[in-house]
């Protein structure tokens, strides 16, 4: 089995565009932004194809990646199984008409090429009407059968005999321990007497 490893490149033309050499040490390394409920981040995230489109669109219009994400996010959340029309998109976005038209056409084209129902990934859940489904990708399923509770043991004749045998064995063990205690005590007394006899000689 061979694991493919990409070759290392030394001369990359786009290195400076990704990592510009104009870095300056900031005065403050930790920045704390004030908490606000108004600045909510969109659920849609740009991919490499979107970045190419936004960079082309920047040459003609004033748009930033965050603004593009918000526009696609509103279009996705405003649509159901069928995408919204251009007139409905203008009511949702409230931007420049030319910008809305460009983004709308790009969104429609990307949504047709998308295999899923939406460009925003979501977790599949079970339907609320209680209908069962055999889809293996559905998360958070409800239990179809009740859990079986643990049954209590019945005090039958066999368990009673086992308890009697256990009690008899424990009583024998206690008797043996008491006899061992007496033996060790007698050995200790014998040792003390032997030492006294040796000292008196």
UniProtKB/TrEMBL annotation:
Domain of life the protein comes from: Eukaryota
Q: Write the protein's name.
A: Uncharacterized protein DKFZp781P2312
A GO CC term?
NuA4 histone acetyltransferase complex
| Entry-linked InterPro entries | Enhancer_polycomb
Query: Its gene?
Result: DKFZp781P2312
One biological process term from GO is: regulation of transcription by RNA polymerase II
């Amino acid at each position: 089995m061979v694991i493919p490893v990409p070759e290392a490149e030394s001369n990359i033309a786009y290195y400076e565009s990704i990592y510009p050499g104009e870095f300056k040490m900031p005065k403050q390394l930790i920045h704390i932004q004030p908490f606000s409920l108004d600045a909510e981040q969109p659920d849609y995230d740009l991919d490499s194809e979107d970045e190419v489109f936004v960079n082309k669109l920047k040459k003609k219009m004033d748009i930033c990646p965050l603004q593009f994400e918000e526009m696609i996010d509103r279009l996705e959340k405003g649509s159901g199984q069928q995408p919204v029309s251009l007139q409905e998109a203008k009511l949702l976005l409230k931007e420049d008409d030319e910008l809305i038209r460009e983004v709308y056409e790009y969104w429609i084209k990307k949504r047709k090429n998308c295999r899923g129902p939406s460009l925003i990934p979501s977790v599949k859940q079970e339907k609320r009407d209680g209908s069962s489904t055999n889809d293996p990708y559905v998360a958070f399923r409800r239990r179809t059968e009740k859990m079986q509770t643990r049954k209590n043991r019945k005090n039958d004749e066999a368990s009673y005999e086992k308890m009697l045998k256990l009690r008899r064995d424990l009583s024998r063990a206690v008797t043996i321990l008491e006899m061992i205690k007496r033996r060790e005590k007698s050995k200790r007394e014998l040792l003390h007497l032997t030492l006294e006899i040796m000292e008196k000689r």
